[in-house]
Amino acid sequence: MTETVLTHYIDGNWLAEWSGPVNELRNPATGHATGKVALAGETEVEAAVAAARRAFEKWSSIEVAERVDLFERIVLQMQARAEDLAAAVTLDMGMPLAGSRIAVGAAILQFSSLLDALPNYAFRETVGDHIIQKDAIGVAALVPPWNYPALQMAEKVAPALAAGCTVILKPAEITSHAGVVFAEIMDAAGTPAGVFNLLVGKGSTVGTLLSRHPGVDMVAFTGSTDVGIQVQKDAADTVKRVSQELGGKSAHIILSDADLDLAVSTAVQGVMNNSGQTCAAPTRTLVPAALKEDFLNRVTAAVETLRIGDPTTEVDLGSVANQTQWNTVQSYIQIGLEEGATLVTGGLGRPDGVDQSGWFARPTVFADVTNDMRIAREEIFGPVMSVISYESVDEAIRIANDNDYGLAGYVTGSDSTAAIAVASRMRAGQVIVNSVTPNLFAPFGGYKKSGNGRIWGTAGLEEYLETKAIVGTP
Ligand code: NAP
Ligand code: MG
Question: Which of 358, 84, 254, 51 shows the shortest CA–CA distance to 349?
């Protein structure tokens, strides 16, 4: 993929010319150049919005069966290109290839699950004395982040197209290779011209232009809370819908009857997978004080056996996504040390035995963290676990809910009735009991500053729909 210029896909065509500058992309695990990306500007945004608007009337009114046909072709193309997509993700942001493959599988599920759900969804139904009709909201701008790019592109594109929207996808700039492979898949599947458009470039320009554009009816944004707030402000004048999936600082409550092996594997995998670059990561680990020592010993042993290195090989952790992310992780480890948390394992700098030109961070565990410390309150988005001890379950729930974020929650405990009772009191959009894996068929999204939207399942589809009531008929 070296030295290709990645470009925009608008109205069924790849643009051979572009108005703006070209940027170099780098492999975060090696520092090597991997290609160039054309940065979209106003010209491309206008062309993409015009194409999506032209295509909207037809796409929003075709039979559901035709949308299902397209989804069948997309699933086949995604399966055929799965390895290319996974490789692009790893090249772009340093996720171990095995993880990229799993995420591509989850991306395919976003389309395949709608094959069954779409024909059964009530786009029109009679309720009492009136008709409720669900209409596509219009042209949707889709702005995912870089941390699970294949899944995050699919979890927006699939429900939006299923609803009858036409879309403009703007992947995070560093994931432009993955964005282009995704667009190649949509093209090869025979997506009608203008229904799916790709703009590559920078969020600060393309994202802003799309958020403000009167021809865009909705922005579906996933990313940091700060940028999400900016998107809302940019969108306000046009009163478009903004669906936000934002940051997190999720709590994992380990109950005193928990299977400690399960608690440890949930804590370690949940925090360390993808080098901690997971919005739903359980980065605040709440442990009964009586179990603290045992838990920390086991966590340390588990963390110290994690294999870190070249993400194209069999490792548990690759690099973090870029230098900015690495610097952020380092600064938070420093903050944790200065705040007086106890460094249990890991710490500053790169691990031994990795390519020192890559942005590899050390899996790090802090104990004796209190919930007022910055490493307990702020999203680090790196492989850093903050362990907080508690005395009573009520105290654990209070600590869990005492945070600006409310994306995910985790409870590990052997009495499932008690564990579910704790889960039901957590202020978070998806609470995972005795597991580390979110459920892709259930709604997922944030309370509080973690956002206002929902993805996955029927709830994800409904984000892209308007509700119309038809009343007064005899
Ligand atoms: P980010 O910096 O907020 O960027 C997210 C996306 O927005 C990227 O495509 C980015 O493009 C674009 N963007 C940047 N500035 C913009 C602007 N002014 N207007 C419109 N778009 C703009 O987030 P990130 O660093 O990519 O991702 C990490 C964050 O995402 C974390 O906070 C994480 O918790 C959150 N996240 C949340 C969820 C969830 O479901 N709630 C899932 C995953 C991640 P460029 O990259 O090209 O600048
Ligand atoms: Mg960013």
Answer: 358
- Among 124, 123, 163, residue whose Cα is nearest residue 142: 163
Q: CB under 8 Å to 201, separation ≥6 — which residues?
A: 20, 37, 38, 39, 40, 41, 44, 170, 173
Q: CATH number for the 5-246+451-470 domain, one of 3.30.420.10, 1.20.1600.10, 3.40.630.30, 3.40.605.10?
A: 3.40.605.10
Residues of the chain with CATH 3.40.605.10: 5-246+451-470
Cβ < 6 A, ligand 1 pocket: 143-147, 172-173, 202-204, 207-208, 211, 222-224, 227, 230-231, 245-248, 279, 379, 381, 407, 446, 450-451
Q: 230 C-alpha vs ligand 2 centroid, how far in Å? A: 13
What pTM, to 2 d.p., does this model score?
A: 0.97
Of 44, 155, 173, 245, the catalytic one is 245
279 is an active site residue? yes
CA 413 to centroid of ligand 1, rounded, Å: 34
Query: pLDDT per position in the chain (474 positions), as tens?
Result: 445 799 999 999 999 887 789 999 999 999 999 999 999 999 999 999 999 999 999 999 999 999 999 999 999 999 999 999 999 999 999 999 999 999 999 999 999 999 989 999 999 999 999 999 999 999 999 999 999 999 999 999 999 999 999 999 999 999 999 999 999 999 999 999 999 999 999 999 999 999 999 999 999 999 999 999 999 999 999 999 999 999 999 999 999 999 999 999 999 999 999 999 999 999 999 999 999 999 999 999 999 999 999 999 999 999 999 999 999 999 999 999 999 999 999 999 999 999 999 999 999 999 999 999 999 999 999 999 999 999 999 999 999 999 999 999 999 999 999 999 999 999 999 999 999 999 999 999 999 999 999 999 899 999 999 999 999 976
Which ligand 1 atom is nearest residue 146's CA? 26
Structure tokens at 423: 């889960």
Contact by Cβ (8 Å): 149, 169: no
CATH 3.40.309.10 intervals, the chain:
251-444
Expressed in angstroms and rounded, the spacing between residue 131 Cα and the centre of ligand 2 is 44
Q: What residue spans of 12-165 are helical by DSSP H?
A: 42-61, 64-80, 82-93, 97-120, 149-163
Residue nearest to atom 30 of ligand 1 (CA): 223
Nearest ligand 1 atom to alpha carbon 234: 19
- Fold entry, domain 251-444: Aldehyde Dehydrogenase; Chain A, domain 2 (3.40.309)
Q: What count of other Cβ atoms lies within 10 Å of the Cβ of residue 394?
A: 11
Residue 370, number of CB atoms within 10 A of its CB: 14
